[in-house]
Each structure stands twice: as C-alpha cells, then as structure tokens.
Amino acid sequence: MPPDSNSKFDRNRSGRDYKGKRKSESKDDGVRVQPHSIEAEEGLIAACLLDGGREILTECIESKIVPEFFYKTAHEEIFRALLALYATGDPIDEILLLDYLRKNGLEEEVGGIATIYAIQDRIETAAHARYFAKIVHTRSISCAV
C-alpha cells in the first residue's frame, strides 16, 4: 500500500528524502537515462568488423537490431553505416567503414579512424557477438517500456 501524502517518505511532494532532509535540487532531476551497455555496443560493432562482417550483420538483421538500439550516437551512426555497407554486398572492414563515413560527412561525428580502431581492438573473436546483440537489444527494449 502506498504511503499517504503526509508521509515523510513522499519525496515527490515534500521535496524531502526518506530521512526528512531537504533533497538537493539539480537540473538533471527527472532526467532518465536509457539502460545501456557501451561495452556490449562496442563488442557488437567490433564483431561486425571481423572476417568481413557479413555473418554477424546477418544475425543482427535477423534479430531485428536497428541503429536506434544503440545508446551512444557514434555507435548508432557506425552501425547504420555497417548496415549500408552490408546492403551493397561488398565485404566490410574498418577501411571501407571509414571511407563510407567520410563520404557521408560522418567521420568527425563518430570520432574518425581512432574510434573505429579502439572499438575494433575490444575483441579478437566474434564468438560472443550473439550475447552482445542480446544485451543491446534487451537494453533498448527495457527503455521503451
């Protein structure tokens, strides 16, 4: 049963915390952050860059992973670029990815080749890509609820 509105536990109406002290006001109060895992996002992108990337990207497409599932804007744009490269049927690697980003004016937005190499160095094998994809997918769904 919820406490009555006169309760010292009612933080929203009284502006006080559970001990009756005034809670600090912050410009970030009320801002909710989407659940996310930057590490899983980077792991999934890195897996997409291994061995031509087509197999992992196929799994991502079949699992209905979309760029909007990525919390970090740079990761969203990189994944969108990977999907565009996948659609061409050409192999995928960090150089082709950078070229695509450069041609579309996104190189600086994602952090350039340094960011791509940093992400690519996160993993050595795509063995856990399915788990990274599951984390990215699950966290994006929990935000929508």
Automatic annotation (TrEMBL):
Gene3D superfamilies in alphabetical order: DNAb Helicase, Chain A (1.10.860.10)
Pfam families found in the cross-reference section: DnaB
Keyword annotations from UniProtKB, A to Z: DNA replication, DNA-binding, Primosome
Region (Disordered): 1-33
Biased composition (Basic and acidic residues): 7-31
Limits of the DNA helicase DnaB-like N-terminal domain: 34-137
Annotated InterPro entries: DNA_heli_DnaB-like_N_sf, DNA_helicase_DnaB-like_N, DNA_helicase_N/primase_C
PANTHER family registered for this protein in UniProt: REPLICATIVE DNA HELICASE, REPLICATIVE DNA HELICASE DNAB
Protein name: DnaB-like helicase N-terminal domain-containing protein
Species assigned in the record: Coraliomargarita algicola
